[in-house]
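Why [Ribosomal protein bS18]-alanine N-acetyltransferase? Reviewers of the renewal asked for a concrete example.
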Amino acid sequence: MTIGTVTLGPLQHADVPKCHEIELALFPGEDPWSENAFHSELDNGNYYIGAYADGELIGYAGLAASPHEASVHTIAVMKHWQGKGVGKALLRDLLARVDEINVPVYLEVRTDNEPAIAMYLAHGFEHLGLRRRYYQPSGADAYTMGRPAQSV
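Here is what the prediction returned.
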């Protein structure tokens, strides 16, 4: 899938160092995913997609799914690419995958991440609960959000 100059494609093990670099830049003061965590997600067969501009990884998203439900594990976009539709394209790709298996999907999002919350609400998610001190070590709270199954 191509959006403007951005192309979406399967995330590869070769992308992992850049994923970790993006994690460090986007989540200072938190516990960013390690390279091993990304390798493990890919090795376990979870669905991960990258967003590429001129061959460079600028964002990624990941999803775990079972026959009963799915969980968005991560969506991240480099700061200078935020607000340009990359996160929305990544989310829509994940949701298309979820809709193929017709299951509900869940995620956690920082309560102060208003752009992400607005994007999730616009794509059929609703607030389900609050997880106090979910993100560590900062202790930031997270909303649990969910979207019911949608048949294609």
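Residues 2-147 form a domain with the Aminopeptidase fold (CATH 3.40.630.30). This is the kind of structural detail the renewal will allow us to pursue systematically.
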